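Example record

Each entry pairs one chain with its bound ligand, CU-O-CU linkage.
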Amino acid sequence: MTVASHLPGAEATDKPVEARLLAEFQQAYPSAGPTPSGEVSFELRAAPSEVPQFDGRPFSVWAYNEQVPGPVLRVRLGESVRVVLHNELPQPTTIHWHGVRVPNAMDGVPGVTQPPVPPGGSFTYQFTPKDAGTFWFHPHVRTSEQVERGLYGVLIVDDADPLPWTRDELWVLDDWLLVAGPELYPEFNTRRDLAHDGRWGNLTTVNGSHREELVVRPGERIRLRLANTANGRVFAPDFSGLDAQVIAVDGMYTARPLPAEGLVLAPGNRLDLDLKIAPELAGRTIEIIDRFTRRPFTIARIRVAGEAVPQPQFTPPSNPRIPRWEDIEAVKPRADYVLDARTGGEYGIEWTINGRVWEEALIEEEFSRLEPGRFHRLTFTNASFRLHPMHLHGQFFKVLSRNGQPVDEPFFRDTVLLRRKETVDIGLVPLDWGRWVLHCHILEHAAAGMMTAVDVPEASDRR
Ligand code: C2O
Ligand code: CU
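Structure tokens for the complex follow.
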């Protein structure tokens, strides 16, 4: 198979168009973060634990600070984050800060940005988030096993001046593959998981509970943050019957509030909603139904009870400068990533990018080189019949087209779902230098090879 990670002529592009695309980008995407003002420290102890899960029954997991989901780390934009990780697991581990634009050395990828933290070891992560929003963190070593066992948590970066929502709620969506006990199904990366869309559980949870009910008062206005931390499951929560609008995707504000119809959260994705509880809903319970598969089920409930409160009036945050990037044809594609499977390897099936699994790609080290501060177009071609939510570390991108048809998503993303046989073009301007991995966020697919990287060299004019 031919591998075209460096397409000839990638430099020959339409300069004026590229300059304009770039100028639009600079308006919309802060290159440097805020000046750090203060530091917030956290300690995370990763260890086997017994936690009350699934409505209170004790359950054996691996957890951060004996909680699943892990503790919510919350800082304000401008504050630096310092996290000391203590590894008390029987395996090496790391922490990756999904969606956070961190310095490369803080990215948590073993063998790429840091050595794995051995059992008994510790590591200090330190960075200043550049964006306010909903992010999450998880190990990047044996990720399919460690995340499934319960190692994940959410990092919330509050705006410098948060708006007066009556409450700020978080729903961490996950699923679990359980056997009697209940106990976690003890085998990971099974042939079945690999041949399908990863490990899909038989019990879904919101914040660790499978009967999550949010009780709100009529008139409330809620910022509801959703994060999909499942290994493989895609959630499609249906908020119809409620006044809900999407205000952020993957942590970043959208150009304008968007209708919350047809919402899809692939593994890794986050969505922030502006949810207004109409006074007429008093006394009602609204079921939030998942519609991704042919078997709809209730994800959680919102019960409207108690005395009405006056609804706060304000315009939710947005990023109206997000560019449309319609003239992308003028920019030659930089790299084409063909996603496919083959037989072989440790698990019987391997998932490849341009015919290579991660271990092979690491040996060859022929990663796409993306010039810092320049516009790039990358193409993903899903040659398979399975789902692949592709996640790029360290940068946000915009989806430019699907199957050759231009699309206008008025937001940036860090993870995009490719459905069977689909082709997706993305555009991005890398700003942070280093080697950043690019992988499928179906963790079993990544474990079976579906990972590569891009190299962003240090800008030559960097002081
Ligand atoms: Cu959440 Cu490398 O991923
Ligand atoms: Cu995949």
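The chain has three domains: 15-30+323-461, 38-158, 167-304.
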